[in-house]
Amino acid sequence: MSNIHVNNQIEEQKIDFKKLMLEKYGMILVLIAISLFFIILTKGLFLESRNLINILRQISINAIIATGMTFVIITAGIDLSVGSIVALAAVISTSIFHSGIALPVFLLIIIVVIVSMIIGSIAGGISGFSIVKFNVPPFISTLAMMTIARGLAFLYTNGRPVWGLPKEFNFLGRGYVLKSLIGEVFPVPVLIMIIIMIIANIVLQHTKFGRYVYAIGDNEEAARLSGIKIKKIKLLVYVINGMLAALAGILLASRLASGQPNAGQSYELNAIAAVVIGGTSLMGGEGTIKGTFIGALIMGVLNNGLNLVGVGSYMQQVILGMVILMAVLLDQLRKNVIK
Question: Which of 123, 150, 281, 323 could join 84 via S-S bond, C-beta 3.0 to 4.6 A?
Answer without folding.
Answer: 150
